[in-house]
Write a structure and sequence with these properties.
Blueprint (H helix, E strand, L loop, with lengths): L13 E4 L6 H8 L6 E4 L3 H9 L3 H7 L3 H6 L1 E5 L7 H12 L2 E6 L2 H6 L10 E4 L5 H4 L5 H7 L3 H5 L4 H21 L7 H13 L7 H8 L3 H13 L3 E4 L6 H6 L3 E4 L2 H8 L11
Helix pairs in contact: 8-15, 10-15, 11-12, 11-15
């Protein structure tokens, strides 16, 4: 197992946010391996249904756990954005019972739009990313990283190029199907698919919003909203322009970076193009 460079608290509640597949659940399982904790996986449909119907049931179920689990006072909730209202129960657990929570999530958007109680500073927030070159050490290959990215599942398939391509293409399709279509975030999925391809092709470049809009046939507000969806679902982020002159800075466009080069290349349809050392 590759050692991740993340230090998790054993005394304070925290959010660990990041896109799907970066290893949040694996990290928490390893961190709490020797701690008796109450584990709640909201990716399990029956668990999600039960707690979505009555979020306060979380504390009732914790109270019914064996004494060893109750004494640890730790509750781990995986993919908390699937039931944003559960954070009200989390708040109550921290304030009234001194419980500590480890919360993972792959969409800040669902938490915001769900009007979730973000715990008012009672839990620290951290982001998690794919592998870094410091974590991989001698196994890091810059050309391979630029071609297929550094998602753990992609890295583990480095000896099988066909399966790597299938995984990355499936990742993009799963994102569109489960994060976008299933949640009805956008009405016109076809236009969003086209936008995804264009936006991925501009990864790391100065953002030319007008050009993106023209290529996708979108109006300015829709294009801006689509980029915000990518940001809120942790697929990408803006790097604001910087200049010592505030006037020039305001007139300069930001860059938009996808969280993983392999996913960006899959989304842009460029996964089969070779990257050379001089690229």
């Amino acid at each position: 197992m590759i050692q991740r460079n993340y230090k998790l608290s054993k005394s304070r509640s925290f959010f660990r946010l990041g896109p799907r597949g970066v290893g949040k659940s694996t990290l928490l399982r390893e961190h709490f391996r020797e701690i008796n904790c109450f584990y709640v996986n909201l990716l399990e449909s029956d668990v999600e249904r039960r707690l979505a119907a009555r979020p306060e049931r979380l504390l009732e179920e914790w109270n019914a756990q064996p004494k060893a689990i109750q004494e640890s006072k730790w509750i781990v909730i995986d993919e908390v954005q699937r039931v944003p209202r559960i954070l009200d129960a989390v708040h109550k657990g921290i304030a009234d019972f001194g419980l500590r929570f480890a919360l993972t999530g792959s969409s800040a958007r669902k938490l915001k739009r769900g009007a979730a109680n973000l715990l008012a500073g009672r839990a620290s927030e951290f982001r998690m990313h794919p592998f870094s070159f410091t974590e991989l050490g001698h196994d890091f290959d810059p050309i391979d990283a630029m071609t297929f990215g550094l998602l753990p599942a992609s890295f583990q398939l480095k000896d099988n190029l066909l399966e790597r391509r299938r995984f990355l293409n499936s990742y993009v399709n799963t994102y569109l199907r489960e994060e976008i279509q299933a949640e009805q975030i956008v009405r016109n999925m076809e236009s969003f698919r086209q936008f995804i391809e264009v936006a991925a092709a501009t990864n790391g470049k100065i953002l030319n919003a007008a050009k993106v809009r023209r290529q996708c046939g979108l109006d300015p507000k829709t294009s801006q909203r689509y980029f915000q969806i990518l940001s809120d679902t942790l697929i990408g982020f803006y790097l604001p322009a910087f200049d010592l002159s505030i006037r020039k800075q305001q007139a300069t466009h930001p860059k938009f970076f996808w969280f993983d080069l392999g996913v960006a290349r899959a989304a842009s349809g460029m996964l089969d193009e070779k990257i050379s050392a001089s690229t």
